[in-house]
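Office hours follow-up: a student asked to see two folded examples consecutively, so here they are.
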Amino acid sequence: MQTITRKEIADRISKLRKNKGYTQDELAKVLHISRPSLTQIELGNRNLSVIELKKIADNLSISIDKLLAEDFEIEEIQINFNNEYKGQLRISTPDLKVDKFKNILLYILEKCAGKSNFGETLLYKLLYFSDFNYYEIYEEHLTGAEYRKLPFGPVPQKFDSIMNQMISNKTIKRIKTEYHGYPQTRYIPLSKPDLTKFKASEKDVIDKVIDQYSDWSASAISNYSHKDMPWLASKEGEVIDYELAFYREHPYSVRTYYDNNVK
């Protein structure tokens, strides 16, 4: 008898859900698990117990025997979700928090501006990883900034207008210099960030990003960001969907998914 792999089971669950026309949010609500946890199940990154598998199968109106059969085929079977779940879906549209964005800029610059390698490109990437790491862990937006896929990696939108405003208000200073023979744009903080604007969880995520990446070169951090799933799965020039953070794999993923078990 052929053994069905975890990845094959994951693909079947994903295909069944899509065939019924339901989103991951809707099925996750019925299963009483988080949306990212269901994503990990559909990617084959989580082992499932028999009890968990039966609950998923029951809610997709299929028997475990059929789900695991060698001749598995998708049948046109409808499933019904209670209306209460329809009204509880989380909407993840980012909304830029300008004041939070400015304070995070000042905080990162306060920590990193003195490093000779720390130019504009590295600043872009620290903002990106802070925002997407926070979203992957907490399912909430940190700054709410949108990031666009550009050739040198994800770039925060409205960055220039915010920086120009901060320069006019004399909270930062922009300088042009060279680093290893290449032109470099640097920013120097002229005022301190308001730490009362940060939650402990936000500061923790930012500090970890700074510790991990602030000593990297611009080329190294750009190349690294190009292998992160949100950037890989986006088309050139389009805004990167925060939901793609749930499809990350090691070493990019920062969330422990196996704690989210089906109950």
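And the second, which I mentioned at the end of office hours:
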Amino acid sequence: MPVQNGDESEVGLGSTKKPSLDKDLQKIEQLEEATRAVSRAWPSVGIAILFLAVAGIFSSFQAGAAAGSVLIIAAAIIGGYMALTIGANDVANNVGPAVGARALTMTGALVIAAIFEFAGAMIAGGSVVQTISKGIIDPNLVPSSEIFVWIMMSALLASALWVHLATYLGAPVSTTHSIVGGVLGAGLAAVGADAVDWFVMGSIALSWLTSPLIGGVIAAAFLAFIKINLIYQEDKITAARRWVPVLVGIMSAAFGAYLVMKGLKHVWKPGLPAIAGIAILIYAAAYLAARPWVRRQSEGMENRNQSLRKLFHLPLICSAALLSFAHGSNDVANAVGPLAAIVSSATTGTLSSTVGVPIWVMVIGGAGISLGLFLFGPRIVRIVGDQITKMNPMRAFCVALSAALTVLVASQLGLPVSTTHIVVGAVFGVGFFREQYTARSRRRRAYVRTHRMHNKGRPRALAPEELKHRKLVRRSHFFGIVAAWVITVPSAAALAAVTFLCADWLR
């Protein structure tokens, strides 16, 4: 059937409009993908519920006929729920950039992260934790161990619910800030404002600003270094042989110091001179190992940016594993800390500022984080790694390096920071730097001149949609994530306060 004249403008080769049939087919494909996503979610929910049931049964054997056994079982289930939400939300920051850069497949990233998260929790998760996260509430002002148990239960449940909601909405948030908010809200409802250390709360609030800013600046600085010294060099291969071993050495030294300070802090606490000496030795060893490796990898390599990216794959994989190990050792306390405190108080009838962590509690925390990542983590992984701004191995390398260096700098300055805020801030920093750099680049100005020539010298006003697509950072994700960061502590606090008041009324 011949095409009518009235239809030619819609389907012609020179047209920018999509045929209505294509649009309808695209809508059907989107609906089918949404249906498949929902159908895949139900088995994951079933497995998560099964895990929580196993956690409850497991804890019942551990509690036995001890006083407060029902509370211990309930706390184990809630602690397992919190661990699942940590895995679903927080762990994405460790592997998201590597997945977005195509250095790791989603399956490979999930396997590596799950193994190293569990290993970090079990090997270096700590046998003793603080009962009141970050020292927010003075335990001496809590009237009884029973009230203390309900404070911890309310904080744990509220923080898990908030992280669950944030994950559903696609916002990577700090689980540490979430549990801090939970403890604050439940403590306020139970004891009052006098029991809160507002200086500690102020320093935590300060980290909302410092973490992403420091992470973004460091990541942007390293990306600028890579652009100047590798990407825009005439002989890219020679430049890579000179500078990639240096960058690998810096990353290795940073992660070595990071693991000693954060990942192994529960089992070994060396001083600053020892940490500096370890970092220098690791740098030297990594540099000497990387030089011949880079030379072998670059033999016969084409003199273009696409080839250079392959040199950053292995460092990215290593960084994802090390970040996951450090995260498992550090942030598992957000799930097992309150749970261990509940077990101790419910069993002994007393409360203290620090308690031992039974091995079965650590197993629930470590297994829950790994399982939560497998079942529900891919969505946040994609957001962090691909949807905020486009990643490639060089940009992802800058993000991972920034995460380790920012934690080191902040620790020495005594600033409380969030790894989530650092990594996501570094992703934003890389994206905004690229926007500014591209806008000022000669290549961009040449494009504009060429575009004006095609329009007979007349500058064409870009349509709003075209301007939107030329932004290298998605503003919707930026504003949504920042808003979620700001309201995490007050939201978790409000949920915990309501939960505690309801529990107090019911009992």
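Two things to take away from it. The two ends are 77 Å apart (CA to CA). Strands lie at 128-130, 354-356.
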